[in-house]
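TOKENISED FOLD:
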Amino acid sequence: MRGWWRRRWTELARLARRAVREASSPRELALSVGLGVLVGASPLVGLHSVVALGAASALRLNRVGAFLGSNVSFGPIVVGLVWAEVRLGCAALGVAPLAGDDALALARSHLAAWWLGYALLGPLLASLSAALTWAAASAWQRRVSSASGRTSAPG
């Protein structure tokens, strides 16, 4: 099991390095990751990667960045994300959510609340991730530029 996690981590690091090196400015990379997070936080369970890649291609954004961002809803995080979106949607609609810990059963029984909660929380998460990506990519670009003796305009 340890080898499996190590391979996944190595692959994720390789994709992140590729995303940063791909012909994208920090601004484009931030938009790509933000788009991916926006799609990844949606109730389109099972379609996040496909939709994020298609949207990034259509908008001519960094597909690797969008793919990485769409994986915001993996494993244990998806449970908390779905739970938060449904609870937020229920609160906005003034509906009491069903009791229980099963996030997907809760989401199925409150589908409208899930979409509303996503509409409220998704853009916030996407904006936050885009801002953090822009800051990290800008710092990376400055570091690489100063190491090679070149200067570049901030993106």
